[in-house]
Amino acid sequence: MYRLLSLALIFLFIGLIDSDAQRRQTSYESLLQRTDQPSSYIDHVLLPERDGTTNAAFIFRLDHDLIAFLRKRDNMRAPSPGMEFFAPLRMGLEIFEGTRPESRRESRSSVSVFRETWQDTVWVETFEETKSRFNHVEGLLKTTLAPGDYHYSLQLSRGGSVREQSSSLRNLKIHPKDGETGREMILLSSLEENENGSFAELLNFGSSVLYGQNYTVLISLPDTLFNSEETNFYLDIHRQAMPGDGEEWNLRQMIELTNDHLIRISNPEFSEDKNRIGFSFTHEDDGALFAAIEVPNSELENSRFRLSLMRDDAEEPLSRRIVNSQWLDMPVSLYNLDVAIDMMRFILTDEQLREMKSGSSAARESKFRQFWKERDPTPDTEFNELLAEYFRRIDHAYARFTTFQNPGFDTDQGRAYIIYGPPLRTERRLPANAPARELWEYPGRTLIFEATTGFGDFRLISEN
Which of 46, 91, 280, 380 lies at a C-alpha separation of 20 to 30 Å from 362? Predict the structure, then answer.
């Protein structure tokens, strides 16, 4: 689903490692361990009310591979036929007065002003779904807060154990109505009109946005900001620079705010329904002022960005938020430049590979980028299908053909899959008094593999 790929974007995710010692320590397996971790996302959203209070929602998303699933017991009734695995979940929210304490002793004296619990039981059909990072559970907890300083924590309870989802307590500041500071930037996946008003669906990936997908940023604005027709406002989008690029942040987009971006939000009401978490609202003249700006993320790299609301008569931003582009199924090799280059050994000669590996990080990156740019089947788009497909084959080969002796991409079957792709047809033969054989058929080509052990090791014995 998230299939857009830009050559320029890859290299922020590719961890450039300068020292030879560090380069030797980085391997495909070490990258896989680091990137194969379950994910959770937490965020809060603040919407002002007419009476000066604020609607506060605390939203979360948990990937299935983070959740501890259990097999259904015989005496249990599933919500629908075929459901075989379940997970009881409980997410607790607690809000305290004041800013986050600096020590554990100070935290014991914090005054709790709100406590609430979200509970659900998640059911899935297959074991594969319990380990999926593409299936998730999401929810929200909400309350109303008066102006002031707060901090909060979210905790996930699974089968009697508690797992802290936030690495630390998070601060929360509720500003008075029409305050001049603390304007919110809310990330939306969609903003829809309906017969009763509008519905804003929250992106709910914490401080991440989905790579290749446009999104909307909703920015809270005091009315006094727009009292002069001579002042212009912009949303500046800067990308964090790569090492050696010079400036820390590079401007990528500048969107001028117009009256078409302005909306009034009244009577906001948070809700969750069928994996759609968001809030409905009406449009009234005395509602809170916001700017709703679509960010053309499909044109941007897979990188880290800084969103800044600027006015042309001031140097400091009126509002700012850092977001990280998230490509959910990015091939493992692309997290590190040297690993990605090493995996090109299946399509390069030894001399070409030595040349590609030589030079500084910047030189290696430039050669890698140029190689794939010259082979991009759609050079007018951000997406290089050939590069993405090649490195996905590396991942498949590792997952499917790894043996006790070799990682999957270093087996004969793995190399064949990387070079030729999935076969049109496979056939397993078990001849009498002879090792098992596998035939892979391609257009105009047949590969024959023979088992060398009883543990899935096959070597190529014939290529017709």
Answer: 380
